Amino acid sequence: MSQNENKRAFIEWLMQHYRHANPSVNYLLKYIASQPNLLNRIEFSENCKYAPRGLYISYYRNSDQPFVYYKDQLSYTLSEQAFHDLRMSGRLDEPVYYIELNIPNLYQELMKFDVFEENPFTPQENNQAGLDEYLFEMSFQAKMTELQAGINRALEANNFEEVDYLLKQIEDLSKDRENQGWSHED
Question: Transmembrane stretches, by residue range (predicted)?
Fold first, then answer.
């Protein structure tokens, strides 16, 4: 699969699994997916606010900023501004648009579709924070999977003390995740 096909497949997956509260954001993503020249100039990344052009899209209902378009150090909260600029930009020499999403398990999904790109505009100290968050999330997911499998085994064996013990570990692990400030749960 080409990189553009991967990006298109990722956008289609995103739109199947998540609907943004603002319909114009959904239309914007559909538009991006339908434009091969535009797909060449988008990257799914992080810290889009540092790039010359960036789109931040959050799918959480309680988000303070569900959509932000960054353009030359300015920010806009209307997706129509980004849509207008994307439609008017047709030249291949125009800046790349960095799209940052706020969804559960973002890094896993980006890696699965092979569409994550480092944002070269991110200050160096933020790169380590992103890597730390990714590694923490991977460790968290592995531990949760292991604990859930343990609960299943304990239930099959009617060992309810073990179930209680494992549920407490899941609770503690979830609290640790929240204390890290990296929990993306509502």
Answer: none
